[in-house]
Specification:
Keywords: Signal. There is one protein chain. This protein is 6% helix and 47% strand. The chain is mainly beta. It folds into two domains: 2-175, AOC barrel-like (Beta Barrel), CATH 2.40.350.20; 186-326, AOC barrel-like, CATH 2.40.350. Strands 1-2-3-4-5-6-7-10 form an eight-stranded antiparallel beta barrel. Strand 17 and strand 18 form a beta hairpin. The longest helix is centred in the first third of the chain and has 17 residues, at 2-18. The termini are far apart. The chain binds 2-acetamido-2-deoxy-beta-D-glucopyranose (3 copies). Residues 146, 148, 159-160 line the site of one 2-acetamido-2-deoxy-beta-D-glucopyranose (NAG).
Length: 330
């Protein structure tokens, strides 16, 4: 009888796991300590056949069963080395859930500082112990790369161990402390780490007959509209392009959808700039405080989205799962 009950419990557990629902984690009293195993990691310098000058960095995150659970891909002009316009903002990119196991996270994003060969990972997930509460955890790893330059391609992969085997690479992430309740005052905001979730991404493009998203010849492009949710404060915004694109770059304002606890409009605004050629999204959020001080934060994401052709037309609709975008290193 005991055996029977036991095997029933096991079968139930297996069923729950294979259903792929997000498992929540305990957040209170935990500092995190989540470990992510890296599978293949590869950097490719620009493909001379494409003449686009873009470097590509790709990494897979493995499940406990060692199959790729998330595939992370980022792309930027080679000379930027992972920093927006070569400046001081890291470029965050989405890690896409493969469905090959249980995903614990709502979003997973990575960024690579190619100058120091450091990979950063951030993920958001639900807390099992706090109703409606979400957490953010972040960590990094420095990787020793072995670069090979061939005639038409140059690429780098992590150096083998002295035994000639593949190195074990793990990224350990820790919880980013959530702001305590009641400290959402303007002056306190400047001391927090800021990041956002990009939701409901939508962009419609029309292409010349016969062209494809891989080699687009655009007839029209609506630019992106999306919702922005601050992971730090919970403020939400609705973002749409406000002008026609200038050379494939869309700029727009984000309308606040939130109110402060007192019921006044919050004193924060947001705006964006999207370079459709590079799929590069720059987000800025600004605060005007009652003490007449102000501050702003900037985050950058590589947002590729997935574009599908509308039946029997030259119109493509591009959408994306939620993407987390940070403001520099935690
Ligand atoms: C570096 O790459 C070369 C070419 O692929 C390979 O022969 C060599 O073993 C690698 N060295 C290390 C330390 O990974
Ligand atoms: C558009 O971009 C191209 C190449 O990036 C540049 O040469 C051209 O001057 C730009 N045009 C405008 C109007 O900014
Ligand atoms: C928002 O700005 C208004 C007007 O400048 C000011 O009266 C109010 O106190 C500010 N609120 C916060 C939370 O800073």
């Amino acid at each position: 009888m005991r055996n029977k009950a036991f095997s029933f419990a096991l079968a139930t557990a297996t069923f729950l796991l294979s259903s792929g629902a997000n498992a929540a984690r305990q957040c209170a009293g935990s500092s995190g300590g989540f470990q992510h195993h890296l599978g293949d990691v590869r950097y490719d310098s620009p493909d001379p056949n494409k003449v686009n000058g873009l470097s590509t960095i790709a990494a897979s995150l493995l499940s406990g069963g060692r199959t790729p659970l998330y595939e992370c891909v980022g792309q930027w002009p080679e000379e930027w080395q992972g920093w927006y316009e070569g400046g001081s903002n890291l470029i965050w990119a989405d890690c896409i859930y493969t469905g090959a196991g249980l995903g614990d996270d709502e979003t997973v994003s990575f960024a690579v500082d190619w100058k120091s060969k450091t990979m950063y990972l951030s993920h958001t997930f639900a807390c099992s112990d706090q109703k409606g509460s979400k957490a953010l955890a972040s960590g990094s790893i420095k990787i020793d790369f072995n670069c090979t330059t061939a005639e038409d391609d140059s690429y780098c992969v992590p150096k083998s161990t002295t035994a000639g085997t593949r190195p074990t690479l793990n990224i350990d992430t820790k919880l980013v402390p959530a702001p305590a309740d009641g400290t959402s005052a303007c002056a306190d905001s400047s001391k927090q780490y800021h990041s956002w979730k990009l939701l409901n991404w939508l962009r419609r493009i029309t292409m010349e007959p016969g062209s494809s998203p891989a080699d687009p010849k655009l007839v029209s492009d609506t630019g992106p509209s999306f919702a922005l949710e601050s992971v730090t404060s919970g403020d939400t915004f609705s973002c749409t392009p406000s002008e026609d694109s200038q050379n494939g770059t869309f700029v727009g304002a984000c309308q606040s959808q939130s109110q402060s606890a007192a019921g006044d409009a919050t004193n924060t605004t947001a705006a964006f700039r999207f370079d459709a050629k590079l799929n590069m999204l720059e987000i800025s959020q600004q605060w005007e405080c009652s003490d007449a001080s102000s501050f702003d934060v900037v985050g950058v994401g590589y947002v590729q989205a997935a574009c599908g052709r509308v039946f029997n037309s030259d119109e493509f609709t591009c959408t994306s799962d939620p993407v987390w975008i940070g403001t520099g290193v935690v």
